[in-house]
Amino acid sequence: MLRLSCLLLFATGLVTAQGSEAITVDTLAGPIRFLASDLLEGRGVGSRGDELSRAYLESQFRFLGLGPGAADGSYHQAVPIVGIKSKISAPLAAEGQGGAITFEGPTDFTAWTGRPSPESRWDGLPVVFVGYGITAPEQQWNDFKDADVKGKVLLVMNNDPAADPTLFAGKTRLYYGRWSYKYEEAARRGAAGVIIIHTDPSAGYPFQVIQAGHEQEKFNLPFDPSTPTLEIEAWASNDASTRLAALGGHDLDALRAKAESRDFVPVDLGVKVKLSTQNTVREFHSGNVLAKVAGSDPILASEVVVLTAHFDHLGIGPPKDGDPIYNGALDNASGCAAMLALAKAMERSPLRPKRTVLFAAVTAEESGLLGSLHLAKNLPVPVKKVIANFNIDGINMWGPTEDIGMIGHGKNSLTALAEEIAAKYGRRVQPDQEPDKGLFYRSDHFNFARVGVPCAYFKAGGDFLEKRDSRRRIKAAYTTTYYHTPKDEIDERWNLEGAVLDTRLIFDCLLSVANADRHPSWTPGDEFEKLR
Ligand SMILES: [Zn+2]
Predict the structure, then answer these.
(1) Which listed residue, 7, 84, 305, 328, has the most CB atoms within 10 A of its CB?
(2) How many angstroms separate the alpha carbon of residue 319 from the centre of ligand 1?
(3) Second-level CATH architecture of 82-281
(4) What residues does 112 pair with on adjacent strands?
(5) How far does residue 365's CA lie from ligand 1's centre (Å)?
(6) Cα(231)–Cα(274) distance, integer angstroms
(7) Which CATH number fits domain 7-65+294-432+449-531: 3.40.30.10, 3.40.630.10, 2.60.40.3450, 3.30.559.10?
(8) What spacing in Å lies between the alpha carbon of 399 and ligand 1's midpoint?
């Protein structure tokens, strides 16, 4: 059994908003136990576990008395997905004044197509080094200047400029620093492809993470013909990238040093590359499960506060110690459990929310945040009516903390709101401790930010009320040892008392936004402010 003691909750003497007492250790433990069981086979997108998860979540929402949240009056929003598996049919071959090199995948590089076609190729295309590959008018930064990169292959640095702390939010990674931005911006400029230069610091993880995806199926929403795509998207080791530049007589470190300045101009490397892939394309459906507690105010009920938590995980994969099931107990059966507990509390609360609260259990987060992307593009109400989004992706399994973590701290007024609520309970909101990792762009709330909706992503705090150091160590071990492995499964040593406190705090945040006089807003100057 997961630990059931509630002693600490009483000992802290906290009284939360009416209704949130429905959030208990048991209400959290039950759904985790089911969703993370081997029966669900790791809830891989498009699998039987995917369908079973959705059926379970819908039945739970119905059982709790929530109404359907999808536009068609059901609990289900279909999410069409395109899977593409690219096999390298001819390896990356480069030619320049220094001779010719053939690079091997996945030792030197990996590559996949950016579009749903059976074959993709670079046929002796010129390579241009474009620094960070960023166009950011508000920072007076444009790496491309007047260079015409149409039909060319761009060699690009990961992350965003770091030399000047006043630019690109200093150490904090902005969306400009995410690898997906590099591909998107290159496609907008008509390039045929991109090679991202891998370094561990600029990625935030080792090259093995990239290699693990070599020739694996990648997922997208159906392609919109008006959105430009790349013939091939590639990612190369630092060593391979250095040799590629040297082939044209260039020193990659010297090129990178120039790229730290606004005056940087793209450099044609004098190198031509060939590469081709054969692609297997398939289409299938998954879905989001949507349920709501309707607002009680006749006017404000048309406005919506959204809570998101993804239910999918990695399914069945390479075994670890003989176990092939990636249960995803913490990631994110636990977030779904918190969502169900919040739905129960909200439905039963005597303090009815004035605005509608939408509970969105979304699919395909692990495949590229696709369920939330589809939802943000196909909201059940106009986007202006969606006033805020809170996201949960993993809850605190290690015991009560003084703090609660917030990814996206300071980006919008939800931070101040959460801080005020936390202070009421003698707690505080802890900003992201690893701002260079870009976690704000790596879970479902990001798709709400992209359509301008102020959002925040709650995480477990680290300031444990008891056994501070040992619990911090156990929490840190989750990321290094359990995260995205078959070992993320139910652990009888877990202590959900902290998760109860966190989820009750989130309940207050939801209710407070749902009843507030004013809409949440972005912090002036934030990268998403202009989208609202
Ligand atoms: Zn997750």
Answers:
(1) 328
(2) 20
(3) 3-Layer(bba) Sandwich (3.50)
(4) 233
(5) 7
(6) 12
(7) 3.40.630.10
(8) 20
